[in-house]
Structures are given as structure tokens and as C-alpha cells.
Amino acid sequence: MFPIRDNIPSRRVPYVNYAIVAANVLVWLYQITLPASQLEALFYQWGLVPAHYSHPTLSAHLSWQELAGPFVTSMFTHGGWMHVIGNLWMLWIFGDNVEDFLGHGRYALFYLVAGVGAALVHLFTNWDSTVPTVGASGAISGVMGAYLILYPTARVLTVVPVFIVLVPLRVPALLFIGLWFVMQFLSGTFSLLGAPDGGVAWWAHIGGFVFGVFLLWLLGTGREKVLERTDLRRSRQFRSIDPTRRRENPWD
């Protein structure tokens, strides 16, 4: 399933979400101007390389800025067109509503901390890896975790490929994000057991998701407040469904 949009409107302009998307695009436009050798050097400088932290012979040659920086810079660096487009599309769909709930400042903090949390989980589950990890998917996984808690019954318009036909299908966010998380968890578990990971940082996704759920509780001033505010929002935003009403165009 590939998501197209959700049905939750935002009350405020998601300036922070727009800024995050723009920053990733600008970094990507810079990346594609680099020759292959400089791009590889950038990945090792801006990406998170677990061996830089686990091997004393490597970490001894790095300053604290060089060790701390990749926890943030890796979130704005991507490995290819599909990587950056896929990540930013998911952020575009789900990020605005989480920012709407948290507010601009807390959402910015939420995003950065979720991304750092995801990087830490990846670091400890790939302790000796010398491969640089890049991408915003850990932080975006945190956004998806928060969205799932806030809007489990929201409808996500997706397309499902059936042979050569793309079939539009509306599914609850609980199903869409829930299936996504199960796939990440199974793939991450198999990778720990020795299965090829395909170059995907599965545990960064899992860690980011869990951090996102926790941060929502923390920044949302507690579970009761989160539930109170989301119940109020749902009561205002979801209309009742009349079973006698003519079926709508699935693409609307």
C-alpha cells in the first residue's frame, strides 16, 4: 500500500514541517552536485557510522563535534531519489497533524529527539558496522508513531497494485501504520538473526516509532491530556456515515 493522503485537516499552517521538508530538499540538491568521491566522503562525515563510536582507535581521531554531529546531520542526508522522495512524502502526509497537536516549537523538539533516539537504537543494534547510515526515516517513524496514537481511526487513502492496476483504498491509520510497524519489526528481528537487511536501518525505524509514542506522551503533558484533546478533535472532525448515502468517488 502506498499512501496518498489522510482525512485529518490541520487548524494551523505546519511551518516546521514545511521547513524540515525544505531543509531535506536543499541538502539533497547539494548532494547531487557532488562527484561520487566527495559524496562518499560526505556520507562518512554526515552519516552515522557505528564503528566511529564502538572502536576506540577510530573515535580517538574524532572530535566531540564530529561524534555528536551525525546524530542530527544524518537526518537530513539521503542515499537516492527514491529514498528522499519516499521519506518526505510520508512526512508530508503525517507530520502536519502531529505539529498541529503539539504546536510548532514542541514539534520541532519532538522531531529532533525522535531522530536522535532512532539513531541511538540503530547504533546499539549495529555496534560494529562501518557503513554510514543516512536518512530521515527514523525521525519520520517517530512522527508516524505519534500519529497512530492521536488519530488511529483516521482514514488514509492508499493505492494497492493489483497486477497492473492501481486500486484506491481507504484504510484506518491503525491498519496502515500498524502493518508498517509489524513489517519493520519482523525485518529488524530477522536482520539480527543474520538475514540480509537490504541496506535498510530497520531498528532505526523501530526505535524512532517507540520514541515518538513516548515523546507524544511526554510533550503532550501526559496520557490523560493526550486522550482528552484527541477525543475532542475527533468529535469535531469525523462526520457520521450514512449507510444510505451514495458511495463517493474513492479518489476524493
Can you tell me about this structure?
The structure is a single chain. Strand 2 and strand 3 form a beta hairpin. The protein has a three-stranded antiparallel sheet with strand order 1-2-3. The model is unreliable at 235-251 (pLDDT under 50). The protein has a single domain, classed as Rhomboid-like fold (Up-down Bundle), CATH 1.20.1540. It has twelve helices and three strands, in the order βαααααααααββααα. Helix content is 62%, strand content 8%. The chain starts with a strand and ends in a 15-residue tail after the last helix. The chain has helices spanning 15-31, 36-46, 51-54, 56-59, 64-68, 70-73, 81-102, 104-125, 137-150, 173-192, 202-219, 223-237, and strands at residues 2-6, 155-162, 165-172. The longest helix is centred in the middle third of the chain and has 22 residues, at 81-102. Helix 1 packs antiparallel against helix 7 and helix 7 (81-102) crosses helix 9. By secondary structure, the chain is mostly helical.
